[in-house]
Amino acid sequence: MGDLRFRLPLAGNPRVNSPYGRRVDPFTKKKGAFHSGIDYKADVGTKVYASESGRVIRAAKHVALGELIIIDHTPNAKDGTKFLYTMYAHLSEYSVKLGDDVKRSEQIGLSGKTGHRVTGPHLHFSIIESTTKVKWNATGNTGLTSSSTFFKNPEGYYGVTTKADGLINEITDERG
Ligand SMILES: [Zn+2]
Predict the structure, then answer these.
(1) Looking at the domain assignment, is residue 54 inside a domain?
(2) Catalytic site residue from 62, 73, 90, 122
(3) 3-state secondary structure of 150
(4) E-assigned strands of 19-163?
(5) Chain centroid to CA 126: how far?
(6) Ligand 1 center to 86 CA (angstroms)
(7) Is 90 a catalytic residue?
(8) How far, in Å, from the CA of 111 to the mean position of ligand 1?
């Protein structure tokens, strides 16, 4: 896992509409709501790329997050080790399907504004770490305010900082 190197899920240097961490919830206006990812400005139809190689474990609609892709970057990891996932929400189209193995920088879909938790077109991107392997539960978890409830026993939610070349150079646990 040490050689995973996450890149931005969009080309160029996309503007951040809403950073990771505490914020005023755009829907409830409540202060201190936790945003477990980053919202990048992206017109509907912008190409979305796999941040790192992995296996698609979800490519299906979610009520709040819209058309949603989750990639498992540790498909061969064993229980007791760490698992890493990335999530891409509010998409308009898929280029991949459940079970596909994708390469870093491969196009996985197009951005959009699907799902209830969206005020305009953007890409919500999260990196999630877990100590247990995640299996998507199709029956659970609607009306989410963060990605956390997607995951069984999540360990951490990470913010990312990027370099000019679009590579993610630091992942910080801002909750700790
Ligand atoms: Zn978001």
Answers:
(1) yes
(2) 122
(3) helix
(4) 21-23, 33-35, 38-41, 47-49, 54-62, 66-72, 83-94, 101-102, 107-111, 122-130, 154-162
(5) 3
(6) 13
(7) no
(8) 13
CA of 40 to the centre of ligand 1 (A): 8
Q: What is the pLDDT of residues 4-24, one digit of tens each?
A: 888 889 998 888 888 777 667
CATH number at residue 78: 2.70.70.10
Number of domains in the chain: 1
- Reduce the DSSP state of residue 149 to 3 states and report it: helix
Q: Which helix (H) or strand (E) holds 171?
A: strand 168-173
pLDDT category, 128, cuts 50, 70, 90? confident
Q: Which pair of tokens denotes residue 104?
A: 């870093």
67 beta partners: 61, 91
Ligand 1 midpoint to CA 121 (Å): 11
Tell me how far CA of residue 108 lies from CA of 121, 142, 160, in angstroms. 17, 24, 20
Distance set, CA 49 to CA 28, 33, 46, 91 (Å): 31, 28, 10, 12
Which residue has tokens 């890409």? 123
161: which 2 tokens?
């900082």
Is there a domain that residue 23 lies in? Answer: yes
